[in-house]
Design goal:
Elements lengths: L43 H10 L7 E4 L4 H12 L6 E4 L4 E2 L20 E2 L2 H9 L5 E4 L3 E2 L5 E2 L22 E5 L30 E5 L3 E6 L2 E7 L5 H6 L20 H10 L11
Parallel strand pairs: 1-2, 1-5, 5-8, 8-9
Antiparallel strand pairs: 2-3, 3-4, 6-7, 9-10, 10-11
Length: about 280
């Protein structure tokens, strides 16, 4: 099965009337996302979205679940830049190539149905089980050193559930994203394995290839999580202190995560009209 794509056109704003009274701008109104001549440095979520976008390739098919702001932003940015032939499947709505302008926090939002097509949830799972997806984005309540992720819950907190997590083994590769990086999330042993990680001697198809958090980018070497780069003001020591198991380290100093280009940042802010990727205290 293959789908076309929207071609990644950014939102057109030129037909919006200018405010005849600029002095009327108040603290209750949104500030411009960028101004001529100067771009505000990327917020942490913007950097994370751009880094995830760099992992996606033209012609691939990606799928994600309900809590989807970051993967949706990443996939739309990829479509707008280096991967115009990328196909997006927004899991909770079943939308195929949602326009996603502006971005919304969940793939279950009705606005995702402004799309090329919509599939049922059963169809989405059958396609995943049949190995038709190249990339699966997943989060979780917990993750361990092998990339096993838990979406079921802990002894005290119930999670969202498995959905397509157990079918990740049928996907080309999995990218994990977390909006927290602490010892409650990065644990020595997950309470439940919803999405399987790296297993010695296994074929490890669909095992996580990359993990991104507000502090770091990580990958896997010999089935163990390894620190790749840091951001958000953290260094390697801070990332390790926030992780409940020893991380592998690259040789030499751990570099900072590359920031998105000014063009990529402008595109990202164009589709993020509501500023969902920006800090609340902006």
């Amino acid at each position: 099965m293959s789908f076309g794509n929207l071609g990644g056109k950014p939102v057109e704003r030129s037909d919006r009337a200018a405010d005849p009274n600029p002095a009327s701008a108040s603290a209750g109104q949104a500030l411009p996302l960028y101004a001529k001549g100067a771009l505000r440095p990327p917020a942490t979520l913007e950097l994370m979205a751009a880094r995830l976008a760099a992992e996606l390739r033209d012609g691939e098919t990606v799928v994600f679940g309900a809590v989807s702001l970051l993967p949706l932003a990443a996939a739309r940015l990829a479509q707008l830049t280096h991967a115009p032939g990328l196909t997006i499947l927004a899991g909770a709505s079943g939308a195929v190539n949602p326009e996603a302008a502006p971005l919304v926090p969940s793939s279950g939002d009705y606005s995702n149905l402004v799309a090329e097509a919509a599939l049922s949830f059963h169809e989405l799972l059958l396609l995943q089980a049949g190995g038709r997806y190249d990339v699966f984005f997943a989060g979780g309540m917990q993750v361990d050193a092998q990339g096993n992720a838990n979406l079921i819950g802990t002894p005290t907190v119930r999670g969202p559930g498995a959905a397509g997590g157990p079918l990740a083994t049928a996907v080309g590769r999995t990218l994990l994203y977390f909006t927290n990086h602490d010892r409650r999330t990065f644990v020595p042993r997950v309470d439940h394995v919803t999405l399987p990680g790296w297993s010695p001697g296994g074929d490890n198809r669909g095992a996580p290839r990359l993990v991104i958090t507000p502090l770091a980018v990580l990958d896997f070497a010999d089935g163990q999580m390894r620190l790749v780069s840091t951001h958000g003001g953290a260094d390697a020591a801070a990332v390790q202190a926030a992780t409940g198991f020893p991380l592998l380290l690259p040789p030499g100093a751990v570099p900072p995560t590359p920031v998105p280009s000014s063009d990529a940042l402008k595109l990202l802010r164009t589709i993020d009209e509501g500023g969902l990727l920006l800090p609340l205290d902006r």
